[in-house]
Specification:
Structural class: alpha/beta
Largest sheet: 4 strands, mixed
Number of strands: 7
Helix content: 40-55%
CATH superfamily: CBS-domain
Radius of gyration: 16 Å
Distance between the termini: 26 Å
Strand content: 25-35%
Shape: globular
Order of helices and strands: EEHEEHHEHEEH
Number of domains: 1
């Protein structure tokens, strides 16, 4: 899980979201409005909105490209349930919320890292 993840405002430009993702080597950004989670934007969202609207990201708002109902979990949510839900619904990430505050992002890459550690542990046992 990425703790204290980067985020972006809903009224920011998609081009800024792309720049943040590339600069920090991440693929998902929680979208906030007034400090509250209102969506999630991914590299894939940016690709699709630019392709479908045939516009550059500097012309589009994050709110136009984001997924408005991201999968969100509590910090103490059982990992097995989070991963099962992500797999079942093909979610690329889960936003970790402590109350209304974004405290982390758990991605499929994080899930694979956990799986790799478990397999390595099993192989050395």
């Amino acid at each position: 899980m990425t703790k204290s993840p980067h985020s972006i405002g809903a009224d920011q430009k998609v081009g800024l979201a792309r720049k943040l993702m590339r600069g920090h080597r991440i693929r998902h950004l929680p979208v906030l409005r007034g400090g509250r989670l209102v969506g999630m934007i991914s590299e894939r969202d940016i690709y699709w909105i630019e392709t479908l609207k045939d516009q550059e990201g500097d012309e589009l708002l994050v709110s136009e490209a984001m997924s408005p109902s991201p999968y969100a979990v509590a910090p103490d949510a059982p990992l097995s349930e989070v991963v099962r839900e992500m797999a079942e619904h093909k979610y690329g990430s889960a936003v970790v919320l402590n109350g209304a505050h974004v405290v982390g992002v758990f991605t499929t890459t994080d899930a694979l890292a956990v799986l790799a550690a478990l397999l390595a542990e099993k192989e050395t046992a």
